[in-house]
Amino acid sequence: MKQPSPPASLPKYLAEGLPKQDTETLHEVQAYVEALTEYREQSVDTDELPETAEPVDEPDSEGTGTVVKEKVTCGDDSCKCASGDPADMHGPYLYRYYRENGTMKSEYVGKPGSE
User: Fold this and answer.
1) Looking at residue 91, what DSSP letter applies?
2) DSSP secondary structure letter of residue 6
3) DSSP 69
4) What three-state secondary structure class fits 46?
5) CA 111 to CA 90: how far, in whole Å?
6) Strands (DSSP E) along 24-89, which ranges?
7) Spatial distance between the Cα atoms of 15 and 34, rounded to a whole number of angstroms
8) pLDDT tens per residue, range 53-104
9) Cβ-contact 92, 114 below 8 angstroms
10) CA angle 7-40-62, nearest 5°?
11) What's the rounded Cα separation, in Å, for the pair 96 and 68?
């Protein structure tokens, strides 16, 4: 059997360094990569969400996030929402919180009931 070729996306330092490692280290690297992948793909836990976010029973079209109903500020300092008072904020709107490369991100989904 011939030694496999690394994927083209693998950085050169890894493509050159991994084949130099002993078998035990390669197994440890494999376990680490699997654990890291699992961590990055996990759903966002509700205790990680902003205080104003309220999880809803909406299916996540991507399958790896948490859909929430949230009131937001518009960013205009002269708007009454800038006070941060939930009664003056805009919305509620639906957002999907998800993890990408280990970082929590969010994206606008729409208004509740607009599907």
Assistant:
1) E
2) P
3) E
4) helix
5) 11
6) 54-55, 65-72
7) 18
8) 888 876 566 666 788 899 888 889 899 888 878 788 898 999 988 888 778 8
9) no
10) 95
11) 6
